[in-house]
Structure formats: C-alpha cells, structure tokens
Write the structure tokens for this entry.
Amino acid sequence: MSSTARTGAVGAVTAGALPAPEPRRWTSRRALVLHAVLALWIPGCAVACWWQVTVALSGDALGWVYTVMWPCFAVFGTVVWWHLVHDDPDTVGARGLERLRREAATPTGDEPDPADALIARAEAQDAELAAYNAYLADLGRRAPAKTWRKK
Amino acid sequence: MPDDAVQGAAAVEGATAVEGHPAVSRRVLIRYRVMAYTTAVLLIVLVFVGIPLQVWNHQSIVARVVGTIHGYLYLVYLLAAFDLTRKLGVRLGWMVLVLLAGTVPFCAFVAERKLTALYNRSAVPPLAAAAPL
C-alpha cells in the first residue's frame, strides 16, 4: 500500500509544484548577477577575438584558429546565461528532486490518524460515548461548517 | 556499487520525467568525466612540456599544437561540465569553479572526483519507498 500511496503523493506534489513560472525571472537577484556577468563576458570575448585578428594579420596564422574560437566562447556564455535565467534553482536537477522527495515524505493527511484507533477502542467499551460521537458526527455532516467567509 | 548507482539514476529519471526536466543520466556524467580527463592531461602537457620548451628551448611547436587543441576541447569540456552541474543542481558559485577548473593544471581532476561523488550521492534514493519498483 505504502509504495503506491507514496508514488501517488510524489506525483501530486510534483504536479502541484510544477506550473507557476517565476514572476521575477528577469529581475531576481540571481538573474541580475547573470546579466552582469554576461555583459562583461561578451565584450571580453569580442576583445580577445579582435586581439587574435591582429595577431593573425601580423603574420601568425595560428591567430585565425583562435579568432574562430572566441566567438564560440561568447555563444557558450549566452547559452549558459539563457538556461540559468530560465532554471528555477529549487526545482531543477537532483537538488530540486531531493526537495520534492522530502515534501512527499511528509504526511499528506491520507495516512490513518493513530488517535482513531484509541477512539474506536473507547467507543467499543462505552455505548453511550459511541452514541454521542455518532450524534456529533451526524450534526457535523448536516450543518455546514461556520467560517468568516461563508455567512 | 554500480548497480546502486544505476538503480538510483533510474529513480531520478522517473521522478524528473514527471517534473519535465531531463534526468541526470549516467551518460551525462561519463561525457563530463571523459572531457575532464582529456583537457586535464592536455593542459598538463601544455604547461609542463610545451611552455618550458617554448621559453627555454625556443621550440614553440608543442605549445602551439597542444594549446590549440586544448582551447577547442576546453569548449567541449565547458558544455559537458555545464550540462552535468546544471542537471545535478550544483550552486552557481561551484558551477563557475567547475568550469574554470579546466584552465588550471590538476584542478579538473579534483572537480571530476567531487562531481562523481556528488552524482553517486544524489543517485541513491533517500526514501525507502522509492527503491522497490
């Protein structure tokens, strides 16, 4: 029982934790750091690329090899930036999975309450108590719970 | 031990598939490890053979060839390392250190050991119920 119940719980937690995209995706502290790093990285690669062009033009053909390489680094930086801005650090990867598992391991309310067994035993010994509990349960079923919202 | 890791990886795969993210498959780890060893060895050859030859013996051919190869393979290392660290959920600062490890002699070996250990730890399902399938 516990295996399937847990699996179901994992699914429920995961489905619940999934949607809602981060509202401050582009302006969170983490994202701003990423923007700043990219803003330094791209010009850095451009300068290095230009430096290699000058090396190549001054006669060393190896410069052309590095002239091609630096734009590749710039593209890599952009790809990393894009992924990291879009990843939610709390749900992506093994760390996020760990968190989801922890949440799934906490009781969800489906498990039987150990107090129920005590109550059942007391009712079995005391018919009056059983009748009174049944009366209360019946009242609870018939009357909707009073809350501040439902008037 | 490998059995544990494979089973753990399968458990991770199942759970992350629900979540919509690619799983941390063993292939991702192995790709990273191959690139880590390759770039680390090339960098050691470059720094401890190529550059001394260039500086003291005026033979730049080793440094030029190995340097170029290392440059491009480092790019591949970056892709593999980013893929693995991202999927493992490594924090940003550590991710940067892992990426930079490919440029400092011997550091890629250390990063490789740390990440493999992290992978093996993350692959073991902590929940008892998650193991029997």
